[in-house]
Amino acid sequence: MLRRQLLVLLLFVLFTANLAQKYVPNDRNDNDENDDEDQVQPVNRVQPPSNNNLKPASSINANVPPASDPLAPRRYIDSNRRPSSSLPTPLAASKECESDVQKYCGKGSKQLLSNLKVLQCVDDLDNAVNLINKDCQHRIYQFKYNMTHDPRFDDAAVRQCSKDIKLFDECEAYVTKRGSGRLVSCLYDYLANITEPSCRYFINQMQAIVFSDWRLTEYFSDACSADIAKLECGRLDDENESIPHEQGAVISCLSEKYGQLTITCRKEIFHLAEMQSDDYHLDRALYYACRDDRERLCSQVSSGNGRVYRCLYEKKFDSMMTPACRKEVHRRQSLVVADVKFDAPLIRACKGEMIQHKCNVDAVEGDQRSSLVKLLLCLEDTLKKGHHIQDECRREMLVHRRMLMSDYALSPEIVSECKTEMIQHCPSLFQQGASGSIGQRGGKMIHCLLGAARKERSFSSRCLTVINALVRAVDPGNDIRADPLLETACRPVIDTLCPRMKAGNSNVVLCLLDNLKNARMTEECEDRLMEVAYFMARDWRLTPRLMRTCQTNLKTFCQLPEDWSMNKELNDVQVGMYLGCLYQHRKNLDRECQGELKRIMHIRTQAIGLMPEIEDNCLTDLATCKNPEVKGEEFKCLQKKYNKLEEQCKAAVRNYTQMTMSDPTLDFLLMKACEPMMQTFCANIENGHENDLIRCLIKHKHEQKMDFRCKAGIDHHQITSMKDEAFLSQQFRTKCNAEVNEHCTGKKTKAGVIQCLADLMLRDVLKKTNAIRESCRDELRFELLQRSESIDFDPSLAKACRYDINRFCADRTPGNAQILDCLKENHNKVSAPCFARLRKREKLDVILPENDYSLMSKCATVIQVR
């Protein structure tokens, strides 16, 4: 019994050898030196070889057998085919392989090796993929293709596996398709269920000696044969495993050039990529390149469901990953970016959401965005509109968002549209044709482009469009984990200032922005944060909390379109426009929306980069305000230069200053300087009139305990408020609206309005009329008392008396009415213009002494007693 089994095994080896030698025979004249294994006649059943049944090699290698011959071979691919009158050249004698065969397989012998022995030799070589030249690899690949598409392979399979074929309907359907190679492929799929030992041995012998992974190549060879020849992608793998994948290198070569593939081959390559996406073992090129890396970096990760891929993606820029592995990981990622359908775990996790929300990830003419970016935008759109997405899908989204944000080269639209910007603004990171350096990628190039988009006016609109699409798809502002470089740069700050913040829903990023000017905020974290915040501030869709809490109010009060989408470009609708609208309707907003609006407004005042309506309209004026020593005070600088600003910038500064005048808590610098003083002097003020807080601070700004930085902030607030009538508080407008409209319509500054009403009040007293109502008088008294405290608060008087102040009051400083008292002391010596203004002020102080700051402060004790 044992002898019979051994005989069967011997005959299968001989059968394989006969087929291997048949297609590229030895055409030397000394046929008597040919191996006996080259002279086996195919028969209908397995039997011992006999001399009577042996045919010479020449008879087997007839050029074209008769059409009626069932063993007639089909036409075979061969880029080096000879004319039909010539016999094919053996592998060992071919110009492509002769030197390598002699070097690695000849062992010093001058005898020409048979094709079978050449195949066995190459299979046994360690690192064959690097030892055998590419032309020879391509020749061997074509030879194997021709062999596997010989009908006699299928005939032999039918003979050896007849019983098992009947068990598998799928395989039985291929019996009539002789020469396709699909019958053996199908049987390999069911190898674990095959019962006949002879069949199992036959299948293993076929795939081990001749071809690679039958499971992955059922249609591959037919679909890609022309592409393999054209692109010279015939390759060998470098190891002979129990489940060989020799075509892994072929698939890898073709996938790197997928843009040049025919439609049929491209479809098959992506089909194979989809099959490989669950188990990294099936991507043989990546498996070979990353075996050691997997053990070193991902040893705790079990294979299956794409888990090893995910780990390798995450470790792609780890310094311990080898360049060869990094290159294969990048190739794998590029396939997924190009067609996301071939990442099976991602599609499986998000399939329900994709169907429900009609996420189209196919290529569309004129749309540069990659398949992965389109899917992420569709799913992000779903989230932003309040729909639920399963946790598993969210986890997969995060994996792919991190992947995109880590490596700019995975986004072909960035590579093509931003090349000029990379060369111009990121030269140290840009290398022509680089294939995967850590320094160039790891998110550094993308953040360099983000920073350049923020600072450089020459940044092209085409590059900005694709960068915008990437930021929307990745949305690092929503979940900081989606941006590995930002997360790494800010980790120490997060651990210190935001340790309990749960990732997602903008929690961490908003916490960091809240602490932008905190002493523990590092410069590295602030720079990376502002690069992302620049885009957040320019796209209202990237403020998820505001969108969630205020979406109804935005539609009701601010005409938010019903069909808004993450997939659309913005058309210049910025966050500030919606925030301004919400602020105007703040008293009518939902309570939750009010709270979120106020928080966003507070954050935006911390840096000019968070106020695009200011930054974008004031580029020229901001250039004169750049001072590294006072970083973050650019807006304060613009307010100081208010009267000299360009009209477009002036309008933007006016709009924002109006809000800070009405609600001083929106003035970040003022609040930062005065927070301790507010606790000391104004702790009992919570929800009174809009300007109760600033009035309290003004009242106590000359107290001994007042911090000098807070006093300076209050002075700036008061001086700025005098520069435009728009800066009148809402409380003042309400109580004095009738008087202003009737008597002061031509006044353009707050100082002018106050002076107009002061003149009216003086006339009322002198003529005993009542043109100003009592409610307006209360507001005016406070404003007049402020004005008399500093010459800076009365621009017209300061301008008229400029020469006299320099002459008589050079040793005095503004505040505490020092300069005003000095001018009054010298009123007989001052110039005529100054005297006219000063006399009017003195009249008002005599008639309405409660508006004289000097009198009220110096005599405060006596006045309180009386």
Automatic annotation (TrEMBL):
**GO annotations of cellular component type:** Golgi membrane
Where composition is biased (Low complexity), the residues are 82-91
- Which positions does the entry assign to Cys-rich GLG repeats? 260-320, 520-590, 644-705, 771-831
How does the entry describe its membrane topology?
A: Single-pass type I membrane protein
Bias (Polar residues) occurs at 41-62
- A GO molecular-function descriptor: fibroblast growth factor binding
Pfam families attached here? Cys_rich_FGFR (PF00839)
Protein name in UniProt: Golgi apparatus protein 1
Q: Which organism is it from?
A: Rotaria socialis
